Amino acid sequence: MSTGSVAPRVAPARGASIDDLLAQVLGGHRPNVDETERLLHAPLDELFPVAGALRDEGLARAGRPGVLTYSRKVFVPLTTLCRDRCHYCVFVDTPGQLNLLRKPTYMSPEQVLTVVRQGQALGCKEALLTLGDRPEERWPEARAWLDEHGFSSTIDYVAHIARIITAETGMLVHANPGVMHPDELATLRPVSPSMGMMLETTSRRLYEEPGQVHYGSPDKDPDLRLKVIDDAGAVGIPFTTGILVGIGETVRDRAESLVALRELDDRHGHVQEVIVQNFRAKPRTAMQGAPDADMHEYLATVAVARLVFGPDMRIQVPPNLSDPRELGALIAAGIDDWGGVSPLTADHVNPERPWPQIDDLAAQTAAHGYTLRERLTAHPEFVQDAAHWIDPALHAPVRALADAEGLAADVLPRAVNGSSAGGDLAEGGLPGRAASSAAGIPSAHHVASSDPGVKRVAERAASDPLGLDDADWTRLLRATGAELDALAAVADDARRYTVGEPITLVQNRNLTSTGFRRAGRTGAGEFDLDDATAIAADAADLGATEICIQGSLRPDEDPSGYLDVVRAVKRGAPGIHVHAYRPADVRDLADRGGLGLDGALAAMRDAGVDTVPGTGVKILSERVRALVAPGDLEIDRWVEGITAAHRAGFRSTSVLFYGHVETGEERIAHLRRLREIQDETRGFAEFVPIPLPGGDVPLVTGRAPLDEHRAMVAVSRLFLSGSIPHVQIPWTRVGRDTAAVLLRSGGDDLGGTLYDGRVLPDTGIEQGLELPVAAAERLARSLMRPFRQRTTDYRVAPA
């Protein structure tokens, strides 16, 4: 197996004893701390074969040879308050920050179910509840919220939410609430089939020494954390734990941490997986200037974790914290699990690191000789021995989602016994406090059936977008005043709890292909093939990772020009992402070039096109097209073109132009059709609601333009949530100040920098409008949200 693209490193001097030790480990020897430390210094090319062989032995013994696993999950950040002060954390807020960000002290059951139900519809079976440690012991605001709602502690509320999630959706909860006492573990066991807490490190220096990462964080006492893991084993809880690499610990610390975890598992057999996580520096933290974990040391630690724990432990790494080209090296190092991956929600602990697409992760896994299978939050061995490991209250929900091997069955989760969370459930369900209990927090069913004001309709929309009829959606589009404020707040919560807080931007440049002249430019806005090469090289030199090319060629230009322009761009910037050609442009290439639609798309792929714009349509209505843009591609041909592009493997944008002759009902019909296409192809990466230039026709007479935009963005976020993940704000059309407001109405992306460049700037359709990275960062800071540069397909931009 390949070790990926990791550069070789000179190994320290060693004798034959390392070879002997590796042979002994392969034969069943369990290394002690001293031996583990020595192994951590061994060359990767000696560690990997042994680690890989042990992993393969364990998978064969488990009855699933060649199978790596993951859990399809939603990430629920129940509260971001915490009493600890870890120097690398961006997850935690103070009460003052919550107020400025308009975030609640704790997520309500309605907000939780809004996210979880969308995950349920996408086939997620795990709800990961993550939160800060015991915030009520530091923050009076947390204590007041719990008192007001009738909960004795944060853990008590976690149990309540876990019970509701499984009762309402059938999904299983993995509770990750930090340090727990034995009675709290017992409280959560009947509602959470697995739990977790990272050990991180046994280093007392990092905890006790001023200035170190865990100083001032009472819950990061290594002895306390080891006791929690031990207590979990004593009561038979399948437990996830692990270590964090690169936070200032020594190699000796890593060795001691791994062996300490093994000793706890030896005692109880309850550690279901060991995570080996690499530190990634984050802005706005005390460690923002610290280097990321060294990749060589990280890979060595992953491999040695396998050697320490042997063939039968699941060794997990988070795939979003490594670059795609490094995943093969991690597989070679002996991992057998990728952990929880979400098709819906961000990694709220590492918001700068998006999850990989599950299909992409499966392809990466297959490329290195393994098959990816979905598991439940409790690993198969624990599911198959549920009588010992899982509380009887959860046996029925677990059985409903498990296949005969204890992995995840190919089913959608369903509410337990068809029940709401109100009252005790029938036999086989979940016992405990009713969702609409004296805690004063109504159940989601109560919310859905109560006062049908705009806020209530918006909350229903957030939880179940397809459950509203067109009249409800149109009512939301027409909201004004306080009702519009409530709509925008609900939409922004839907954004926060799915795609997360980051505001993203891609560095790009436009190139308008209508200006292409093969024979050479003769006027403004024109370019030839040599110019295209120079434009691309200049854009890449400025930092652009994308060139966006669109516009139909003039009829007197040979249609092969579409492909030649792309090739010329790739010559000038071989690594740049080409985002090229609207459905109308592709149709022109297909028809005049005699290639047919599928042939044109294949030729574009061969030429170097990576993704396609989903523009060239205003609203998916022939009535509107005839009145506003009769020259646009017919609606059915646009739909045929974009779906063909998706099937050919191209992802695309999607748009809606509003503020002209369209009705509210036509806007909603457009959004509904986009969802239908997305259900069929999963090809849309983003949606852009764009005011039509010169339109300015309000849907509500007298409503201010800003409120028109707020309503459109908010409804877009709610309607498309769980379908098209990103809502882009067209800052070129609304201006930066309005863009900031719309980013608080459900938006999460600013599109591109739109560099003019130094070479023929007039060849870009929006020449003269630029959003430099520094300006976008300032805008994000003004909203107290993190900023992240992205690629066209919403991956982490290369440094």
Which spans of ≥5 residues are poorly predicted at pLDDT below 50? 1-16, 418-451
Overall radius of gyration: 27 Å
Number of distinct beta strands:
18
Structural class determined from secondary elements? alpha/beta
* Total helical elements: 32
Main sheet characteristics: 9 strands, parallel
Shape: globular
Task: Estimate the strand proportion.
Answer: 5-15%
Q: Look at the structure and give the mean pLDDT.
A: 92
Q: How far apart lie the N and C ends?
A: 28 Å
Helix share bin: 40-55%
Describe the protein in words:
The strands form 4 sheets. Strands 1, 2, 3, 4, 5, 6, 7, 8 and 9 form a 9-stranded parallel sheet that branches. Strands 17-10-18 form a 3-stranded parallel sheet, with helices on one face. A 3-stranded parallel sheet has the order 11-12-13, covered by helices on one side. 42% of the residues lie in helices and 12% in strands. Helix 1 (17-26) runs parallel beside helix 3, helix 24 (583-592) packs across helix 25 and helix 24 packs across helix 27 (635-647). Mean pLDDT is 92; it is low at 1-16 and 418-451. It is an alpha/beta fold and 799 residues long. The protein has 32 helices and 18 strands.
Secondary-structure topology with pairs:
Elements: H1 17-26, H2 33-40, H3 44-61, E1 67-79, H4 95-101, H5 109-121, E2 126-131, H6 140-149, H7 154-169, E3 172-176, H8 182-188, E4 194-196, H9 205-208, H10 222-234, E5 239-245, H11 251-268, E6 271-278, H12 295-309, E7 314-316, H13 327-332, E8 337-341, H14 358-367, E9 371-375, H15 380-384, H16 386-389, H17 395-401, H18 444-449, H19 454-463, H20 470-477, H21 481-496, E10 503-506, E11 508-512, H22 529-541, E12 546-550, H23 561-572, E13 577-580, H24 583-592, H25 596-607, H26 622-628, H27 635-647, E14 652-658, H28 664-681, E15 684-691, H29 705-720, E16 726-727, H30 731-734, H31 736-742, E17 749-752, H32 773-782, E18 787-789
Parallel strand pairs: 1-2, 1-8, 1-9, 2-3, 3-4, 4-5, 5-6, 6-7, 10-17, 10-18, 11-12, 12-13, 14-15, 15-16
Helix pairs in contact: 1-3, 2-11, 3-12, 5-7, 5-19, 10-11, 11-12, 19-20, 19-21, 20-28, 21-29, 22-23, 24-25, 24-27
